[in-house]
Amino acid sequence: MISMAGKAVRRWWALFALPTFAAFVIGFVVPFVMGVYLSFCRFSTVTDARFVGVSNYADAVSDPEFWHALVYTVLFTVVTTVVVNVLAFAVAYMLTKRFRSTNVFRSVFFMPNLIGGIILGYIWLLLLNGVLAHWGRSITYSGVYGFWGMVLLYCWQQIGYMMIIYISGLQALPGDVLEAAAVDGASSRQTLFRVTIPLMMPSITVCSFLTVTGGFKMFDQNLALTNGAPSNSSELLALNIYRTFYGRAGFEGVGQAKAVVFFLIVAVIAVIQNRLTTSREVSA
Q1: How is residue 29 annotated by DSSP?
Q2: What is the pLDDT of residues 125-147, one digit of tens each?
Q3: Could you tell me if residue 275 is inside a domain?
Q4: What is this structure's pTM?
Q5: 3-state class of 136 per DSSP?
Q6: Crossing angle of helices 252-278/237-247, nearest 10°?
Q7: Which of 85, 91, 235, 267 places its Cα 20 to 30 Å from the Cα of 168?
């Protein structure tokens, strides 16, 4: 039997959904469609756009800095995805064991995620330059220094957030399965790799998706830590698009074309990654 509240929701569901739907259309659909259209235009503002076909895309793919930033971003994303997920799972696994001050350690690991990316970038800029100063170097001395500096910063910020997701997954594991593994004589190593990790694949799917997309989209930490120096060799793709759009007059359309290409690359990679990890999920 349907309650009065249920009947009201069924009758007026469109009215309840309208505010959220309107916000989604205004805040996402309209800007996205306009962005795709502007990628085929030459413009300085959205009111003086002039259609130029695919010339913006031709200029984008012929820019060597764009390809350098793309390769640099892919390498950065691969390294950070592996490091963040391995360390976050290891920390979560340790912090689900019974010992004193577990909640304190969880809070400490999670705290870096609460700090803004720009602030973190400047903090780590001071720290890394202080260390490198002993060798007469700085974080902007080469793209290699910038790369590993950003890896260190990003991993330090994200491990605590992914740790929380892994802890939730570990706490939701069925106890009877783990007890059955112990009764069958499985060692802790065998239980971890043959029982725990396969059952944790839903959490691994979520965390790997977040780290992959986050690595590709990283901008503010890159801006604050290296600003692309030296000579744009430590420039990630988001910063390259920003510089093209705002730093070169008349190249707004090229920057918008790069943004569309960037969206397609991230979407394809995220879908592939999600399918690969989802296919390995097992039911308890």
Answers
A1: I
A2: 999 999 999 898 999 999 999 99
A3: no
A4: 0.89
A5: coil
A6: 160
A7: 267
